[in-house]
Amino acid sequence: MPAARESLLDAAYTALAHRPWSTVRMVDVAAVAGVSRQTLYNEFGSKEGLARALVRREADGFLAGVERALATHADARERLVATAEWTTSAARGNALVRAMLTGCWSERLPSPTLSAVPSSSAVPAQRRADGRLPSPADFVALVRDRAVAALSGPGAMRGDLGELAGACELVVRLSLSCVAAPPGEGGVTELVRGALPRQWT
Fold this sequence. Notes:
Oligomer: single chain
């Protein structure tokens, strides 16, 4: 991603931490990023385009974190525990991630439509941002499928692929329930460890 675009997205994210999206001004985002307002409009087209790009970046960052969590351990159970821990911590630390995972968009946040919007942008990253954005159900499927792919190698689990997919989806849904209603002692870690099949190595 070009440096100016990334700086603009950083500036928009920082502005959002301090005030509602409706009061974030494009001129202020450009000034904080150290670029002209015209550069901002060239990159994103509009404030809605900036919102879509910001949501897309945070979605991509969340999914990259899922990939890292799935690569942290050799043990299948601990890989899923790490994925659940990442999901809950990412949602606690990032209001946009929490909104994307739960579908609960507060009035402080941008809430772009999830369906694709017409795009005439010459910027490939913006054309991607103008495409369909993931819904909470999409995130469940995306994380589940990444987990299945990471864990379906030789010796990862005793049992069939359907059982693996079911266990991975259960972990994702447990994680999301912990985002909506934080668990008590032991947290998401103990919930996931207790929910996974005993025969997992």
